[in-house]
Specification:
Largest sheet: 18 strands, antiparallel, barrel
Low-confidence stretches: 1-31, 315-320, 355-363
Structural class: mainly beta
Number of domains: 1
CATH class: Mainly Beta
Organism: Roseateles saccharophilus
Signal peptide: 1-32
Keywords: Signal
Distance between the termini: 31 Å
Shape: globular
Order of helices and strands: HEEEEEEEEEEEEEHEEEEE
Number of helices: 2
Helix content: under 10%
Number of strands: 18
CATH architecture: Beta Barrel
Protein name: Beta-barrel porin 2
InterPro entries: OMP/PagP_B-barrel
Oligomer: single chain
Length: 418
């Protein structure tokens, strides 16, 4: 596998409660699955939500109602030794009051799992997301009160030598890029390529150990470095310059399964980064890592725990916070009350501290972000379901304008044809 840091999916990002609650609700639509008898699905969804403090302001409250209409579809097909999967969802999101925030969001992802007659196998995958970005991201950027679209693309390739053997060699490559439509977020735009090579051993039936080297090279195309006077308009403008960065990691990973009911994944890395704008972005040299635990004590109850210590860009705690280390915790679970009715709950916390130094681009010393989620899902039939959820977010920060509290609640109805 590509030895990237453990992170949640885009839909459950630890960074913040998404400003568009309807989009969060519509994510349930992307969870549809197929099987060998029905290798495809198509469907639609309708979500209604109430959002408090839409712009994530520290003092003002701007509430709104959001309607989200979605289309979704997918393919899950085995072609001999190869396995093709495609999933996609598109939502048209409409605000009742803040109509300038109306937007079209989508998630598209696909993968091909391939295998030869020997011990050679691999994965080719791609993912693309488009959504409304956080209005109050912090990190030296004033909160904005306008539509800001975030786009992220990711491509990965993995080659594996050794399938049912005790030792496995794996080589991987990935490309990621992210950009924002608002110029205020230029510092968070980036593109990067990562290559990795590792060896993995299975000393026992339920234990897997790995040692991998990982190299990342990327760029922030427009990182702000100062201000200047525009001679034509006579206005003060932001001057930006590209920041080229590299990162080297040595990863030690483990996977331990106990009887199929409990799985523990860990990663400990020695990480080192270097930025070309070293007067504004401090380099990092230290230990990063992650831990993930999934436990199913009964047939109805599932629990999961995740912990990560990494830079914001790699852990997706923030959009592209290169030189700041975050510690992130998430605890979640689900319980099946009946065969049709299930409950879910999740809580997360992301925290970082920084000792201010001369020339640092971000001067706030504390950022503490907490989110909570409660949900219920009723499956009327295999293809028809209703989901409702409540989300709440609290943020504490050394900079008063970054402090806020917000919540949302709503429901989404979904219908799928197999």
């Amino acid at each position: 596998m590509i030895a990237m840091p453990t992170k949640p999916s885009h839909h459950c990002r630890w960074a913040a409660l998404a400003p568009l609650a309807a989009a969060l609700l519509a994510n349930q639509a992307a969870q549809a699955q197929t099987d060998d008898t029905t290798p495809f699905y198509v469907g639609g969804s309708l979500g209604l939500a109430h959002v408090s403090n839409v712009y994530r302001e520290s003092t003002a409250t701007n509430n709104d109602r959001v309607t989200s209409v979605g289309l979704l579809g997918g393919i899950d097909k085995k072609l001999g030794r190869q396995h093709l999967t495609l999933d996609g969802s598109v939502q048209d999101n409409r605000y009742s009051e803040n109509r300038d925030l109306n937007n079209l969001s989508y998630t598209l992802k696909g993968a091909v799992n391939w295998q030869t007659v020997g011990n050679l196998s691999g994965v080719l995958s791609a993912k693309s997301d488009r959504s409304l970005a956080d209005f109050n991201i912090g990190n030296g950027v004033d909160p904005i009160l306008k539509k800001n679209i975030e786009r992220e693309d990711e491509y990965q390739a993995l080659v594996r030598l050794g399938v049912a053997t005790r030792y496995t060699l794996e080589a991987g490559w990935s490309h990621r890029r992210r950009d924002f439509s608002a110029s205020e977020y230029d510092r968070f735009n980036f593109h990067q390529n990562t290559g990795s090579f590792g060896i993995y051993a299975t000393p026992g039936a339920n234990v897997r150990l790995g040692l991998a080297a990982r190299h990342t090279r990327g760029q922030n195309p427009r990182y702000p470095v100062g201000f200047a006077l525009d001679p034509e308009t006579l206005q003060i403008v932001v001057v930006s310059a590209p920041n080229d960065y590299t990162r080297n990691d040595l990863d030690f990973t483990t996977k331990w399964s106990t009887g199929g009911r409990s799985t523990l994944n860990t990663r400990i890395s020695r990480s080192k980064t270097h930025n070309s704008l070293d007067t504004r972005l401090r380099d990092l040299s230290g230990t990063t890592g992650s831990l993930g635990w999934n436990w199913q004590p009964t047939a109805k109850l599932q629990l999961n725990l995740q912990y990560a210590r990494d830079t914001g860009q790699e852990s997706l705690v923030q959009a592209a916070d290169l030189n700041r280390v975050y510690t992130s915790q998430q605890l979640g679970g689900s319980y099946a009350l009946t065969s049709k009715l299930s409950l879910s709950a999740k809580g997360s916390r992301n925290r970082s501290t920084r000792t201010n130094s001369t020339g640092a681009a971000v001067v706030d010393a504390l950022d503490d972000f907490k989110t909570y989620n409660l949900g219920v899902r009723w499956a009327f039939s295999r293809g028809i379901s209703l989901s409702c959820q409540y989300d709440h977010a609290d943020r504490d920060n050394s900079v008063p304008q970054y402090v806020y509290s917000a919540s949302s609640y709503g429901c989404t109805a979904q219908a799928i044809l197999y």
